[in-house]
Amino acid sequence: MDAVAASGGEVVFREFLSAIVLNAQAIADRLGLRLIDVQAAHLVTQAGPLTAGALAERLGTPTATTTRVIDRLERAGYVRRVRDPHDRRRVAVEAVPGGMGEADAMFEPTRRHLAALGERYTPEQVALMFDMFTFVTRAFKDATAEIRRGGEGR
Fold first, then answer.
1. What's a BP term from Gene Ontology annotated to this protein (predicted)?
2. How far, in Å, are 15, 16, 110 from residue 128 at the CA level?
3. Whole-angstrom Cα distance, residue 128 to residue 137?
4. Where are the domains of the chain?
5. Is the pTM of this model over 0.90?
6. Which of 10, 40, 113, 147 has its CA 20 to 30 A from that of 97?
7. Residue 8, class by beta-carbon neighbours within 10 Å (0-12 exposed, 13-18 middle, 19+ buried)?
8. What share of the chain is helix, strand, coil (3-state, %, to 5)?
């Protein structure tokens, strides 16, 4: 981040991150959910069925907190608990087909505003940005894991 900080880009980058978080919070607010609930719903939608323990690990929350998240999402109709057909003691959380329609619709303004990328930049530049997003995503996941471990890994 030294090159970014030296160029004054750190301010822009922090504003970028803040805009993303506040956008997600606004969506959560409109849905009557918490930000962690929206993130959990996305994780289940992207990864497929997850046990509460696996979801807790990905969210970085205690299992009791994750259980409350699952309860809220289940009440809202976004996810459901299903028993493993091979081990009835195991329960997974899966997205309800079509259940994310309302939540997905809340992202429409974000999608619409981001569509302007195609008007402002060439297809090659857009591809480069998405490559950068992939790199930044991995960097944030790695940093998050390091922070949760207590900062080890430097």
1. response to stress
2. 21, 17, 20
3. 14
4. 2-115
5. no
6. 113
7. exposed
8. 70, 10, 25
pLDDT in tens, 6-46: 567 889 889 999 999 999 999 999 999 999 999 999 999 99
Hey, what long-range contacts does 62-71 have (CB within 8 A, 24 or more apart)? 65/36, 66/40, 69/34, 69/36, 69/37, 69/40, 70/40
Lookup result for tokens 């699952």? 70
CA angle 96, 24, 31 (to 5 degrees): 50
CA dist., res. 41 & res. 103, Å (int) = 9
Q: Which long-range contacts (CB under 8 A, 24 or more apart) does 19-26 make?
A: 23/110
Angle at 127 between CA 10 and CA 24, to 5 degrees: 55
Helix (H, G, I), strand (E, B) or coil at 151: coil
Crossing angle of helices 9-31 and 35-47, rounded to 10°: 90
Tokens of 74: 């289940």
